[in-house]
Design brief:
single chain; 262 residues; mainly alpha; Arc Repressor Mutant, subunit A; 12 helices; 0% strand; elongated
Amino acid sequence: MSGPLVIIVCSWWFTFWVNAIDVILTMLYLSYGTLLIRSSLVMPEDVRLSHVEGVLFAQRVAGITLLVSACIDGVLSFDFMVYGGEHALYILSLSYLILIPSVVVAVIIVGFSTLSTESEALLDIEAKLLPDASIDSVPKSVRLSEQDAKDIVSKIEALMKDKEAFRDTNLTLNRLSRKVGIPTRQVSMAVNQVCGMNISKVLNEYRITYAKKRLVDSEDSITDIYLSAGFQTKSNFNREFTRITGQTPSAYRNDAMVLCEK
């Protein structure tokens, strides 16, 4: 809050503090952008696990946008202080020629990611920009021991298999942590170490396994199946089902029926 308050105070004496305001605004953009990107590197505890990737991606997009804005403001401030704004028009034109289309594309990608639509091209872009956390990027000093990580994952597996916790559409990392009685950071770290993917994707693996069984063993509609598996939207279910099995739910069911007839 101190940054915005300083800006308000300085605005009363704009003539004397114009350069200071430019510097402060640039530093605020840099600070907020950096904090958003750092936040996107940590698994959120109170976000539905099915929405985690979209939330993290949105944070990164917002952070990058603020950092780019800070760079633009910094260059403009320098131009006004040194050259009296002689190049301001060119700087603005070039900057926003790049920034505005980038922001529009980013917003579209975030929207598609959050709403779980079926646009394969945008999903490919998201996958590249938001890869799974790699255990190689985690310092050895803060990793769990191999046995501790396996023990934690075993507890999670027992919870998923025995109580089918994955069917809870409101399951978050925080709630999962309370269920297994282990701190959220350790849960997230253990899953990444043992499974090589984040908890959100592990959760969807269980949901898809459940859905596959229901598709073969029951005549329930696909809508009933994905809702009972813990998914909230058909598009998200179709996306994850195709990612994991390489088939759509309908094609998977049809192939299973053909095999049974043989």
